[in-house]
Design a protein that fits this description.
By secondary structure, the protein is of the alpha+beta class. It has 7 helices and 10 strands. It has a 5-stranded mixed β-sheet with strand order 6-9-8-7-10, with helices on one face. Helix 3 packs across helix 5. It is elongated. The relative contact order is 0.17.
Length: 220
């Protein structure tokens, strides 16, 4: 019998501690020291002592883990390519109607996030991304979308609204068959969470300085 991570959860390692995101509850959390050590041994494939098994069974009772005969061992969120440039800071030509569409997309993402929740918003994006067909001008399209949303941010503030802003940008890119990544990241000391969209080594809707200290905990 194996231990698998609950479907709505993802995690990363920061400062030698496991940080979890529960998208169903829109909640970040850590484990107790003892449970964290046992969970780390499970992830590493190390031998589990009797106390480790008791700690892991406690995580099953809390809904962090589930047991299954063929459950894969939990794996941390994969790292994205280290961002090296920002499309959001590049000069862009004025495009009136695309800017209005970007603004409408941002306001729609805020509404959906508020009334449908994080998990539903992410599932919708995952489904949209799974239908992407490659296009040769993806980079040019990403540049244009970044400019549209930067100008839209002048009409409605996106400060402290990185999540709906990133959801809207990712949705616009997926609609245009640009296979970007929506990245949810965390940092410690002090704890903080942030979200951005990345296309290869370029951040689409933020600056490099704003994202460099965050470790990905969920990537779509």
């Amino acid at each position: 019998m194996g231990y698998g991570l609950a479907p709505a959860l993802s995690f990363c390692t920061a400062d030698d501690r496991r940080i979890f995101l529960d998208t169903n509850r829109d909640l970040y959390f850590c484990l107790s020291d003892a449970a964290d050590r046992s969970f780390s041994r499970l992830v590493d494939g190390s031998s589990l002592a009797a106390q480790d098994m008791r700690n892991l069974d406690g995580l099953v009772a809390r809904g962090v883990l589930h047991t299954s005969e063929h459950a894969p061992s939990p794996t941390p969120c994969p790292r994205t390519v280290m961002p090296r440039r920002s499309l959001y800071e590049a000069p862009a030509n004025s495009r009136f109607f695309p800017t209005l569409r970007a603004l409408a997309g941002y306001l729609s993402a805020r509404w959906k996030l508020r009334y449908c929740g994080l998990a539903a918003s992410l599932r919708s994006l995952e489904a949209r991304k799974s239908r992407i067909a490659a296009r040769p001008d993806a980079q040019a399209m990403a540049d244009a979308v970044a400019g549209d949303f930067r100008r839209a941010a002048m009409l409605a503030t996106t400060r402290n609204y990185c999540l709906p802003h990133s959801l809207a940008v990712a949705n616009a890119l997926f609609t245009r068959n640009v296979p970007a990544d929506l990245v949810l990241g965390v940092r410690t000391r002090p704890f903080g969470a942030h979200c951005w969209v990345q296309f290869h080594e370029a951040v689409v809707n933020d600056s490099i300085d704003n994202v460099r200290d965050y470790i990905p905990i969920r990537v779509i």
